[in-house]
Structures are given as C-alpha cells and as structure tokens.
Known about the structure:
Blueprint: H1 3-38
Amino acid sequence: MSGQRVLMAEAALAGGVALALLAWELPSLRREMRIWRMAGGFRAGHRYP
C-alpha cells in the first residue's frame, strides 16, 4: 500500500468521524444557537462582558 493511499484512507476516516460527531451534536448546537439569538446575539456584547 502506497503512502498516498494510506493518507487518503486516514483523511476519509477523520472526515467520517468529524461528520458523525457533527451529526451527534447537531440538536444541542441548534438549541444553543436559539438561546444565543434570544439573548441578543452579536448585539448583546455590550450587555454581557
């Protein structure tokens, strides 16, 4: 097996793990974004130092 094939296999494995982690965390990320928007988002920076 050549080095390039090993590198491609590692990249595919790392991408799959990252995608699985994102899919696992998506519901909580959506909830956090909703809370952040209700708190004011970027505009709330001066209220919450």
